[in-house]
Write a structure and sequence with these properties.
About 60% of the residues lie in helices and about 10% in strands. By secondary structure, the chain is of the alpha+beta class. Among the domains are: about 100 residues, no CATH class; about 160 residues.
Length: about 475
């Protein structure tokens, strides 16, 4: 109103409004390094003007009830999508690097060296088919080869088991985060239904969504009430308003854990094949596809070695004229040297004919020649070549995982840097805003002081 009281009221609303602005600026400064915090601003608006006989006069300022939150919904969705891919490659790289260590032929005793010693032992036996030491060496090198196969396979299975444990751990963390998001949905709607803002709860919820996306592929959106709706797999709900669903695991035919979504009735729905990103996808793919593929190829190599050596050895003759297999077992799981041969090295067959015993070496020569024979991949490569291609593929897979991880990490870093530009706190900008608000607050206080002096003067005149 156009009088001294009106001036004081204008000053009062200005003081309150700029005090609120200073409070928000102080909160921004305090959270400058808080992960996930979005910058906040007070929006100031003019009060409704007043009309009087002489015209219309402005009536001061007020701060809006809702505090504006710097937020880009499209950018947040991009970050979440990229974090899902980042999580996948992080898990897959970790699993593959474990596999790479097992195929390291430089720093330890590997399958390549075991093969070389095995073939050399047969060559030495061919040079001296009646030699006892040479027969002992053949058996010893055969046992080393079988044990190396079995150890390598066990090590690969242990990588699968590690991935299986990671999957089970992730399920527990996912369920916890889902419940936390549902609770934050409740808090957001409770606050905002009264017209206030829930910026802090929204920041916390977005942080949890990013963490959840890193763990498992999700789809999410915000409904009209401010609730975030989250689904996994083939659109199975994980969070809907203030309610959350759970994931669980169950043992499959291979002895590993499949992923299930628990519906409203408590029934388990298999969603293992529906997961397309996040750490969950990385561990599942490493366990069920990548490492499983290596194991299958190792078993194929072992079974072919067993069959090829046995075919020749069983057709040959030991020193006592008997015929027997050199290896037992079907693949890398149970490959071993025939226990009878281990007990009596004279049962090692070097001769190709019964009449050639003991000096004939044709069987030993034939087995030694297997090293250079095209026995693998439809007779297109040798044992050594097949194994070398396995080692090469492991290296290529690790390299691809590292490159993909580096690319995703770069994408996430760029998007998060852009988010900082949009929603992060700049201390320089906050200081400028603080000085402006301080000056406005001081000026409003001066206005009230001036109005008070005018009022005192007026009262003095009446007296």
């Amino acid at each position: 109103m156009p009088n001294i009281y009106g001036m004081m009221d204008v000053g009062r609303t200005a003081l309150i409004s700029h005090q609120k602005a200073i409070d928000i600026i102080g909160n921004n400064i305090a959270n400058a390094n808080t992960p996930g915090y979005s910058r906040q601003r007070v929006n100031l608006e003019q009060n409704a003007p007043v009309r009087y006989q002489g015209g219309t006069m402005s009536n001061g300022v007020h701060a809006e009830q809702r505090i504006q939150r710097a937020y880009d919904q499209f950018l947040a969705a991009q970050i979440n999508d990229q974090k899902q891919s980042l999580g996948r490659w992080t898990a897959q790289k970790e699993a593959l690097e474990k596999v790479e260590l097992m195929f390291d032929e430089v720093s330890g005793y590997g399958l390549n060296k075991a093969f070389s010693e095995f073939w050399n032992a047969w060559q030495d036996l061919a040079n001296n088919p009646v030699g006892h030491v040479e027969r002992v060496t053949v058996v010893s090198r055969g046992r080393n080869l079988a044990e190396t196969f079995k150890k390598l396979r066990r090590d690969l299975v242990s990588v699968q088991q590690d991935a299986d444990e990671e999957i089970q751990d992730l399920v527990g963390e996912i369920n916890t985060i889902a419940r936390q998001i549902a609770e934050l949905n409740r808090k957001v709607t409770q606050v905002e239904v009264s017209g206030h803002n829930a910026n802090d709860y929204r920041d916390e919820r977005d942080l949890l969504l990013n963490k959840l996306g890193d763990m498992i592929g999700i789809n999410s959106f915000e409904d009209g009430d401010g609730n975030v709706i989250v689904s996994v797999g083939s659109e199975k709900p994980l969070v809907d308003g203030t309610r959350s669903w759970s994931l669980t695991t169950g043992t499959n035919g291979s002895g590993f854990q499949d992923l299930y979504w628990v519906d409203s009735s408590g029934a388990n729905v298999d969603i293992t094949d529906d997961i397309d990103s996040g750490q969950m996808k990385g561990w599942l793919q490493a366990r069920d596809s990548v490492v499983s593929g290596y194991i299958d190829r190792l078993d194929t190599l072992a079974s072919t070695v067993i069959s090829q050596v046995n075919n020749l050895h069983a057709a040959g003759y030991a020193l006592d004229g008997s015929q027997n297999n050199f290896f037992t077992g079907g693949n890398a799981v149970d490959m071993a040297v025939n226990s009878a041969v281990v007990s009596d090295v004279n049962l090692v067959a070097a001769s190709g004919t019964s009449g050639g015993v003991p000096g004939d070496n044709s069987t030993a020569v034939a087995i030694a020649a297997l090293q250079q024979t095209l026995t693998m991949s439809s007779a297109t490569t040798t044992f050594d070549g097949y194994y070398a291609s396995m080692v090469s593929d492991v290296g290529a897979d690790v390299r691809d995982a590292r490159v993909s991880l580096q690319h995703q990490d770069s994408m996430v870093s760029r998007l998060e840097a852009y988010r900082e530009q949009v929603a992060g706190v700049s201390l320089d900008e906050e200081m400028v805003e603080l000085i402006q608000s301080q000056h406005a607050y001081s000026a409003a206080a001066k206005l009230i002081t001036s109005a008070d002096e005018m009022m005192a003067t007026l009262i003095g005149m009446v007296r």
